[in-house]
Design brief:
The complex is a heterotetramer, with 2 copies of chain A (about 375 residues) and 2 copies of chain B (about 325 residues).
Chain A (H helix, E strand, L loop, with lengths): L3 E11 L18 H26 L13 H10 L5 E3 L5 H7 L3 H8 L15 E2 L7 H15 L6 E6 L6 H12 L4 E7 L2 E2 L2 E2 H4 L16 E5 L3 H16 L5 E6 L18 H9 L2 H11 L5 H23 L8 H4 L7 H19 L2
Parallel strand pairs in A: 1-8, 2-3, 2-4, 4-5, 5-9, 8-9
Antiparallel strand pairs in A: 6-7
Helix pairs in contact in A: 1-2, 1-3, 1-10, 1-11, 2-3, 2-8, 4-11, 5-6
Chain B lengths: L1 E3 L1 H15 L3 E5 L15 H5 L4 E3 L4 H13 L3 E5 L10 H8 L2 H4 L9 E6 L14 H5 L5 E3 L4 H13 L4 E6 L8 E3 L12 E4 L4 E5 L4 H15 L3 E5 L2 E3 L3 H11 L2 E8 L4 H13 L8 E5 L7 H7 L3 H13 L1
Helix pairs in contact in B: 1-7, 3-4, 8-12, 9-10
The chains are: A alpha/beta (about 375), B alpha/beta (about 325).
The structure holds thiamine diphosphate (2 copies) and magnesium ion (2 copies).
């Protein structure tokens, strides 16, 4: 039946460095040796911290946490491309990006060991929003931050991360719609790691790509190989640029794989095959980036060893500091319910201190 | 000084605070061109422009979510839920982030914002437009909940709410929007949050209420005073959370009797908390049980039956008598 | 920069009968004279009831309500194309469709005059879900109903309506995503009447069409002229068919115009021009459908007059019944909090009756 | 008869009810292949197939919204919120439709469904995973709220909840999931909703609690009994709403003293309602104020501080002593 076609859309895919470390030279971004090595160093550090955290957790020295291994090529190039004044709005699987932004290694350790102190930045101006455990909420925060930065004439961009599972939440939709209605300077990055706990990507949503969800709002969208730091660099640079030029939001789907368990409380054997994991490991980002750097003559095994030592030492120092005695008070929560004094809180605070005293007495 | 109704008084507060502070932003459904479905935000768009008065798409969670983002960036969003009945769609954002950001960062990041919402019955509105659920928000640590009862305190409390460093749910009793006028000074007036107000002193019974229920409450007190000569103290809560029980308790230690009037369903409501606080602190002074005169634990009826379900002066008077006669 | 195109989408528009009543004969559906006249009769009845309700409201004989005038060409052909076993899941602007499904005229009157009795159907099997005032919720209900009907092997479809404004709600997104993930037999119809109270369609969302929001879920989508009952008939027939064949959901954007105020509490002069309204009135559905029927020789003014009388009489009867004395009890709400007995409710019920008695005594 | 923990007991109820009634459907995040993040739904997919056990996309509102649709079509969905902390995202659907459908159609349409959700602290979980907010749901007319305290009553109450004609929020104290085992009969066992249970008779003080707090409560009672020889009556609420205050009131009229133990923040919580009900009905029998031993009105701290904030046996014992000494 002849109908009038009134709109046409397409989704593009970008990969520059394939899983074998093979480069599509036509697409290679102009990054200096230093810039490339910086990406690599951060990736190594994030991987090292992640692996160490897993050990700490298994030893009962750390609480439950969501490992980030395999997703380093996403948040790290993103954070490196961002300016200081930009806002970093994470979900909970952006360890590398957080480190790049200047969050101390210890913050993550404190946070996942049950201490609010992990959210307190050395400097508020780092513009990192704490982890958003309640999935999807952060999308709207990013839009609000972006709107505010334009209102204040700051020319800064909010960059927001979410998982493939998170795209099913209503807040994802509402946030993207507001962003495009407001032409807000914001970039949405979906870390499509194929899984939301036990739910595979293809059951999460029936769409062929996540990127095409941008079409619903006329938001420019792009799917990239999320294990390819070069593609990520190109995509984020373009998106930040678009935002800064006042052209509004971008949606980037970064296709990657959650190589480890969802969190340390999870057992992926219940729902996926080791075969699948093995295949995914072959595509992981550090391997291919290492090969690329070697191919370019920027790297060799002789350099790798000291780097490994360096990141190990950094992590070791952080763990030491993490496990050093703290004078953190148990009654802090009473001080931060409100920014003003209230009799009810004051009275309960007194009760609380009474409990503590009594319980100390009784041993 | 002008005689204003509550709509005008709130509008005045918004105008003045926006003029005072460039960080104050107003957003919500139909708050701009239309001036709000109840006309609360009228004239703001004309005065402050589309840069500061935002007509948002139809999504409650995003209104609060983006406001949280704005607040984190240092702005002071004042957002409107068109009716409190739609506010449950933003409970996730509110509970997870607005109320917690201060605590989880030990004050490094804060969310100063105001969520205005008309609530309560009595205006023959459609379903979902007449509920009274202040207790739902009051039970969330980190949230302040404020309910003005008249034009003057509405204006002064809203100013305080906007200047408060924390998220405030500002629940406007829509039944009182245009029900009466009061002198409202042109000059700035601010009332502290977290303080109840003794609106009439008395010695024989303490009558506590808030929001739209203040009117039948005051009327009933006058009636009983006239009929029996009873001296009744009347307290207007103004802030629901953090609740100023000291004022109530102090009063009850003098009067020995208390009636709490609440529009919301009885169970798990604000009057239960007040009763519990009196029980805690004034137990030995009580000469009768605290009486909760409240709405019923039924699904809010449509407006054909609404009147039968709202507490009214006659029921309040009856509750007072029962308590006096106990 | 050469990127790989991995997906392509388009949005089609369908109009069969244009605003001047001109037919695109190639697209004309095969509907009999009777079927066409049936559509027309229902449209007249809905229009008449709407106009009468407005008068009643202005006279203080009816509460606030949202007029439906101008949108008759959407829900009426839809309801006529549905089977009895299908579910009709409305928002609040589907008066015509509700009547077609068998809801008595009085139901709407009771409902908008503040009586739950307006939701009680003469027969539960009519499969009409009550009005969803909280916008967006109904989308998910429809998906659940559709899932259930497949589970029960009923071969029935759920048809869900929502406004252009409603598409901004998170529940719209979550519902569409569930529908496509489940391939549920459901049809979503967006009544895009250009306004959500005072918010114009183009500010509601930045997308060029509402239809394209289906692309986010790979849900087949179509934009139609919503003032064209023939286009609506074709679109819904196709969508119902797709659903019944197990091919999943469809999203139809029906472009129309809210000719009256949002509700009787609203004043459109605050936010739109009379000029705009005048233009819209020229495109309204009854006008063009009347012309079409006349052109086909199925209708003439001699037939119009008795029809007008007939619908007037029906509405008159309904109003009479609506305003006749009822024995509806004020204490009914106590009987329907739960399906089981509870002491708290029973006790409060007694208190309530005590109040009533006391207040009757005191006059 | 087998010794089961609460996870196994709930799993047993689900298995048996699904086998009993083809209309029972289980849905939620990770409830299928994974068997639930706490393993509550383990084995259901294997036994009943993907047609009746649905791993849903990640969207709380849609889980409840589609369940409402299923219930309207005559099914009995039992859905899971992965943690109660995420349930606020579905408050809109729950409040607007699940709790009201019966009332608004005078019973013609109903929404029989169960929303299971783990709640409460004590398991060193991430933020948003440890709150206790039963009062939030309990304040909604038309909603039933149930909190089991042990494997056996969890199983019997869940069966009742599934068979109940109305929406039931079934709040599972996750701290008790694997904390202890009880004999749970293989054969069907059903406990009525809306009934509290006297778990220990006594004459000098009434101790009321529910959910995970039952354990420190019982322990404290034993300790005080041992130390002072006090005879303590212990009541397990089991259903939070509609609240069975008759059982509590009857007990307090005999004992004259009452302590209520609640994990949630104090203000506007369940213990306030209980206090108010006792005030209503047993005022003249009270020899001391009802004592609320509760969580604090602070934002739930992360687990590094959690232990300091949860009521424990020593604090309960202290509250009992204070009340006895009043
Ligand atoms: C609103 C909400 N619902 C449920 C959860 C529980 N939960 C934590 S992570 C997760 C899966 C997230 O998947 P995805 O978005 O793909 O992110 P990933 O874990 O793969 O990084 C779930 C269901 C949550 N944290 N928030
Ligand atoms: C969740 C929710 N938010 C706000 C409202 C108030 N409200 C009622 S109708 C309406 C506009 C609806 O616009 P649209 O979806 O386009 O439907 P239309 O009225 O045009 O038919 C609004 C904001 C509501 N009913 N529900
Ligand atoms: Mg994922
Ligand atoms: Mg509209």
């Amino acid at each position: 039946m002849p109908r009038k076609q009134i709109a046409k859309f397409s989704v593009q895919h970008l990969q520059i460095l394939d899983e074998n470390g093979k480069l599509d030279a036509k697409l290679e971004p102009k990054l200096s040796e230093d810039e490339l090595l910086e990406i690599y160093r951060w990736m190594r550090l994030a991987r090292e911290l992640d692996e160490r955290m897993l050990k700490l957790q298994r030893q009962g020295r750390l609480g439950t946490f969501p490992p980030n291994t395999g997703q380093e090529a996403i948040s790290i190039p993103v954070a490196l491309a961002m300016q200081d004044k930009d806002w970093f709005v994470g979900a909970f699987r952006e360890l590398g990006g957080r480190l790049v932004r200047g969050e101390p290694l210890t913050s993550t350790l404190y946070y996942y060991n049950g201490w609010e102190e992990g959210n307190i930045l050395p400097n508020k101006d780092l513009r990192i929003i704490p982890t958003s455990v309640v999935i999807g909420c952060q999308v709207e925060h990013a839009v609000g931050l972006a709107w505010a930065s334009r209102y204040k004439g700051e020319d800064s961009v909010a960059v927001c991360f979410i998982g493939d599972g998170g795209t099913s939440e209503g807040d994802f939709h509402e946030g993207l719609n507001f962003a495009s209605a407001w032409k807000a300077p914001v970039v949405f990055i979906v870390q499509n790691n194929q899984w939301a706990i036990s739910m595979p990507r293809q059951s999460q949503t029936a769409s062929g790509t996540i990127a095409q969800k941008g079409i619903a709002y006329d938001i420019p969208c792009l799917q990239i190989d999320g294990n390819d730091p070069l593609a990520m660099h190109v995509a984020i640079t373009e998106a930040l640029d678009r935002a800064r030029k006042g052209e509004g939001p971008t949606l980037i789907e970064a296709v990657t794989y959650r190589l480890m368990m969802h969190t340390t409380a999870d057992d992926p054997k219940k729902y996926r095959s080791e075969e699948e994991e093995k295949v995914a490991w072959k595509k992981e980002p550090l391997l291919r980036f290492n090969k690329y750097l070697k191919d370019k003559g920027f790297w060799d095994d002789a350099k790798e060893e000291p780097l490994r030592g360096e990141v190990k030492a950094k992590v070791e120092d952080a763990v030491k500091e993490f496990e050093s005695p703290k004078d953190w008070q148990q009654d802090d929560p009473f001080k931060h319910v409100f920014g003003t004094e209230h009799a009810v809180i004051a009275e309960q605070h007194k009760d609380f201190l009474g409990n503590v005293e009594r319980e100390a007495d009784h041993g | 000084m002008a005689k204003l109704n509550m709509v005008q008084a709130i509008n005045l507060a918004l105008h003045q605070e926006m003029a005072n502070d460039k960080d104050v932003i107003v957003l919500g459904q139909d708050v701009g061109v239309d001036g709000g479905v109840f006309r609360l935000t009228e004239g703001l768009l004309e005065e402050f422009g589309t840069g500061r008065v935002l007509d948002t798409p139809l999504a409650e969670s995003a209104i609060i979510g983006t406001s949280i983002g704005m607040a984190l960036a240092g702005l002071k969003p004042v957002c409107e839920m068109q009716f409190s009945g739609f506010s449950y769609l933003m409970m996730g954002q509110f509970e997870a982030h607005a109320t917690r950001m201060r605590a989880r960062t030990h004050g490094q990041l804060t969310v100063p914002m105001v969520i205005r919402m008309p609530f309560g019955g009595g205006v023959r509105a459609l379903e979902h437009h007449s509920e009274s659920r202040e207790a739902t928000y009051a039970h969330l640590p980190g949230a302040k909940v404020v309910t003005p009862s008249g034009p003057r305190n509405a204006r002064a409390l809203l100013v305080a709410a906007i200047r408060d460093p924390d998220p405030v749910v500002f629940m406007e009793p829509k039944h009182s929007y245009r029900a009466f006028r009061e002198e409202v000074p042109d000059k700035e007036e601010v009332m502290p949050l977290g303080k109840a107000q003794v609106v009439q002193e008395g010695t024989e019974l303490t009558l506590v209420s808030w929001g739209a229920m203040m009117r039948p409450t005051v009327k009933a007190a006058a009636q009983v005073e006239k009929e029996r000569g009873t001296s009744i103290e009347i307290i207007d809560l103004l802030t629901i959370s953090p609740l100023d029980s000291d004022t109530v308790v102090e009063s009850v230690t003098r009067t020995g009797r208390c009636v709490v009037v609440q529009e919301a369903p009885r169970s798990f409501g604000v009057s239960s908390e007040i009763t519990a606080r009196i029980n805690d602190k004034a137990f030995l002074y009580l000469e009768a049980p605290v009486k909760r005169l409240t709405g019923f634990d039924v699904v809010t009826p449509y407006f054909g039956r609404e009147k039968s379900y709202l507490p009214n002066a006659s029921r309040v008077a009856h509750a007072i008598e029962e308590t006096l006669n106990f």
